[in-house]
Amino acid sequence: MRVKVRLQKLNTSPQRAIVSAFAAVIIFGALLLSLPCANADGHWRSAADAFFLATSATCVTGLDTIGIGHSLSTFGLCVIVTLVELGGIGVMTIGTVFFIAMGKRLTRVGEQALMNSLGVDAVADIGRILRNTVIFTLSWELIGTLIIATKLTQSYGYAWQAAIPHGFFMSVMAFCNAGFTIDPNSMRLFAEDPFMLTSLVALMLVGGIGFIVHANILQHILGPRKHRKRPRLSLHTSLVLKTTAIILIAGTIAFILLERSASLASLSPFDTFINALFQTVTSRTTGFSSIPTHSLRNASIMITMLIMFIGAAPGSTGGGIKVTTAAVLFLTVRDIILKKERVETRSRSIPARIVTEAISITVLSIVVVLTTLLMISITEENSGTSLFSLFFEVISAYTTTGLSLGATPALTDWSKLLLIACMFVGRLGPMTLAVTLSRTHAGPAARFPEENVIVG
After folding, report:
1. Is 20 helix (H, G, I), strand (E, B) or coil?
2. Does residue 442 belong to any structural domain of this protein?
3. At the N or C end, where does the chain have fewer CB atoms within 10 A?
4. Per the domain annotation, does 445 fall within a domain?
């Protein structure tokens, strides 16, 4: 009887549906990556490395423990791309597309699970949302493939037969904010190629802003006008665009000031600007590097960690606590200082529920990161790896960024398992797992007497 009740709870929880779908894809991907045909040497891959790679790909992280460019076969690289696509577009999104294509109808639970994965509230016209999401994703990836492949043939001596698959791999990784690269030097070959770097920046930004934001922008530009006015941008879209712009401007200026006499010293002023912009964008949640991450100054690494922690936009291919969460936290602190009763911006009030969720997400994220760091520091106590490097790797894993100071490949299997859990929680979000693992207590809604507590 208890087993039946638990199964019913699993089937009626949207959060658990998403968790189960991601877990199933990771397990299946790990099985494929462990096969001899997936590895260049024709041998079985260790379970720990296969599981780590499958999680890193499905969670669009990009942390690599083996060097996939020379360690995986063509089949293995195809598995990585497929897992990244599933994780980037969303397991629930792709599954539902096929579900609808076969003439099926979603249940209420299925609709809610999909809306949770996309980061929207409405369930109306769900088929159109899904269709546009997939078309939008594939269109940008194909455009990116053509641009990158053309550049590879014209400037780097690639034949079209090699340029197209290489360009497709790079385009998918950039748009899905995954960060896997076939070249072990990541994007350092293009450090003095502004065209290639800006093309990758465009793909990373488009993938990291979120599908709902793009739809709202198109509606604002092309939608029917009322009283000669365009449809307004939603508050969500406004916060995403403004916060992203602030992070890009501040990050680029900071990297230029800190690195122009260090890791960027050999570059021209224009290349310095492009690489600083690239470093800022890739730190949001992608994981590419046009300059070695370990060559950055400590201050630059700390700025990178902060940008990684904030991450991209909700409903996008990126991770982190999300730019809207950071924006709501900033607005909350500002309005508390101004002694306002409500959190307000753009002539709108942000509901108290959203403020509470933003605080909860941030606190839970800090708890997950620090707990993982504590456990890994214990398992790696005798490895000689600095705590600062471990902290960087943990934040990179949790925010599904993929940047590394070089510590991840040398970690023990136990530490890799801890990073796997960290990536999984980071991709799905701590709030999703908290709701998934919590029990619902039904009972009368009661309000207890208030009593003050001294804080601060």
Report:
1. helix
2. no
3. C
4. no
**What long-range pairs does 410-416 form, CB within 8 A, spacing at least 24?**
410/383, 410/385, 411/65, 411/376, 411/380, 411/383, 411/385, 412/379, 412/380, 412/383, 413/48, 414/379, 415/376, 415/379, 415/380, 416/48, 416/49, 416/52, 416/65
Overall number of domains in the chain:
1
Largest CA distance in the chain: 74
Condensed to tens digits (0 to 9), the pLDDT of residues 188-234 reads 999 999 999 999 999 999 999 888 888 888 888 876 776 667 777 88
Sequence-distant (≥ 6) Cβ neighbours of residue 111 within 8 angstroms: 123, 126
Whether residue 17 is contained in a domain is answered as: yes
Whether the per-residue pLDDT at 7 is higher than 50: the answer is no
Which range marks the domain in which residue 206 is found?
8-223+231-436
Integer Cα distance of 301 and 290 in angstroms: 14
C-alpha 83/C-alpha 68 separation (Å) is 14
| Residue 317 in tokens | 């291919």
- Confidence band of 116 (pLDDT split at 50, 70, 90): low
Q: Residue 174 falls within a domain, yes or no?
A: yes
Mean pLDDT for the chain overall: 86
Task: Enumerate residues 6+ apart whose C-beta is below 8 A from 359.
Answer: 329, 332
